Amino acid sequence: MTYTQFKEGKFNKAIFGVGSAENHGFHLPFGNDTLVSHAIAMAVAQKVEGMLVLPPVNIGVSYHYDDFPFTLTLRPEVMIEVLKDLLNSTIRQGINRIIIINGHDGNIAPIEIAARSVKVANPEAFIASLDAWWIKAGELLPQDTFEVWNGLG
Questions:
Q1: How sure is the predictor about 54, in pLDDT bands with cuts at 50, 70 and 90?
Q2: Which of 13, 58, 70, 109 lies 20 to 30 Å from 130, alpha-carbon distance?
Q3: Average pLDDT, the chain
Q4: 8-state DSSP, 65
């Protein structure tokens, strides 16, 4: 997106995915959590006028997967600060309605802490997060959807 496209877009809302950089077994790609959360953000933005899709956060809190090959991780306190900076930057650009689509279990608490902290400092802001899309998807999709690959979807 160019400067002109941003200005002409009349964006008043933003959405972004938060994922991880970890191994997802033999059947899913590295970065799967980021790819899925970003795809959900893109799909939402197509249906909501004035919704800007921000770049996804590609690395999350994954230290609990350190035993698996090529896991990259941020410490929880670093993740909180990264998210706070992203949220505050978005608000400074005049967009104070923000949705976070989380794609990774280790990010749930840091997202909640960051969102609450930014909301306290910016009471006019509306910050919502979908903490675990896979739970809602499990309620909406056919019962056997996640049974492939021994439940690893």
A1: very high
A2: 70
A3: 90
A4: G
The pTM for the full model equals 0.89
DSSP secondary structure, 20-59, as one string: -B---TTTS-TTHHHHHHHHHHHHHHHHSTTEEEPPPB--
Cα 93–chain centre separation: 19
- Phi, psi for 33 (deg, rounded to 5): -60, -40
Give the number of residues written for the chain: 153
Q: Band of the pLDDT at 69, cuts 50, 70, 90? A: confident
Cα 5 to chain centroid, rounded: 23
Residue 83: strand pairing partners: none
Out of 3.40.640.10, 3.40.50.10310, 1.25.40.20, 3.40.50.2000, the CATH code matching 29-136 is 3.40.50.10310
Q: Count Cβ atoms within 10 A of the Cβ of residue 30 and give its class: 0-12 exposed, 13-18 middle, 19 or more buried.
A: middle
Grouping H, G, I as helix, E, B as strand and the rest as coil, residue 17 is: strand
**Using one digit for the tens of pLDDT, what is the confidence trace for 89-103?**
999 999 999 999 999
More confident residue, 52 or 150: 52
Residue pair 72/22 in contact by the 8 Å Cβ criterion: yes
Q: Which residues share a beta bridge with 16? A: 100
